[in-house]
Amino acid sequence: MQVNILHTFFMAEKGKKIKEISELGEFGLIDHLTKNIKSDDKNLIKGIGDDTAVFKTGNTCTLVTTDLLVEGIHFNLIYSPLKHLGYKAVVVNLSDIYAMNATPKYITISLALSSKFSLNAIEELYSGILLACKNYNVELIGGDTSSSLSGLFISITAIGEAKKNDIVYRSGAKPNDLICVSGNLGAAYLGLQLLEREKEVFLSDTSMQPQLDGFEYIVERQLKPEPRRDIIETLRNHNIKPTSMIDISDGLSSELLHLCKNSDLGCRIFEEKIPVAPQSIAAAEMFRLDTSLAALNGGEDYELLFTVPLDKKEEIEKIPDISIIGYMTSASEEKFFVAKNGIELELKAQGWNPLK
Ligand code: ADP
Ligand code: MG
Description:
Largest sheet: 7 strands, mixed
Radius of gyration: 21 Å
Order of helices and strands: HHEEEHEHEEEHHHEHEHHEHEEE
CATH architecture of the largest domain: Alpha-Beta Complex
Bound molecules: adenosine-5'-diphosphate, magnesium ion
Number of strands: 13
CATH topology of the largest domain: Phosphoribosyl-aminoimidazole Synthetase, Chain A, domain 2
Number of domains: 2
Distance between the termini: 23 Å
Strand order of the largest sheet: 8-10-7-11-9-12-13
CATH superfamily of the largest domain: PurM-like C-terminal domain
């Protein structure tokens, strides 16, 4: 504490403004902390800056990604069943491995628990973790366990493998490539709005039962997402290798801007092409939210956003559950969202920023 006060005093004396973390935001903070990291390791293909790190191990490549889930920030135990939470904690990591066009193989799990958790509760969490491992054919190979002063922390690291030439990065898109998205967007965010509403009702009267009828799909998208291994397999079966790819954890706008930045391109996407499920439309109406804004900025859909060369258009159109929503442009400063009324708006990342 003493040191911080002195530091603040001297920095203020020098007339320098001390930047707050909230000013930087999540990505600004990561950039700030990692901008001087350089590697001359000849086996390291990708360090910081993609869905996973990639390095060569013999004839194949190993991919590593890690995610931290914090109670009260990423999940609320009032409406997240522990089994679902365990499942989700695993699959959000697998989603990053699939987003590199790779196969997840192993995970490690680190837990910090407060004294409020019973053995039963942690067994429930583990039943979800092990179910996800079984469904996606990955092995749990280790972890760490600690106590926590407040709530539950779950950190999972996933390790995958791929052939070097199969791996797809955020940086490979080319001008005129088609921008594609799997499934539909905004459902997880709208599911969260519904769960939040029911939480408030429950807290004001604990005899109330949650009213989720007719919205089971969006609630499931929030509580128990599935990573799109099926899309990776389908694309492989059609001999289509995306030129760039990312999974949608922070919202379509945020992820598309990552593809643009890393590929040094612009983009144009069309509101009318963005896939939204009927239940999401109904929920958005109920909450008086704009469906497209929920799809653009909602996050946690864990769908895949990828680009393919223009000559793959016909083939892609034949594949169910993939939508072409726009195209990449060479004008790297122009990122456009074309609204249904034809007006072009600048695409901005307003996704979820936990540090603000
Ligand atoms: P994703 O949303 O795909 O999980 P993130 O946005 O969390 O990816 O991270 C972007 C990149 O920054 C990744 O390469 C990740 O490994 C790296 N990264 C995130 N946090 C840190 C950190 N505290 N220190 C170093 N690298 C980090
Ligand atoms: Mg990702």
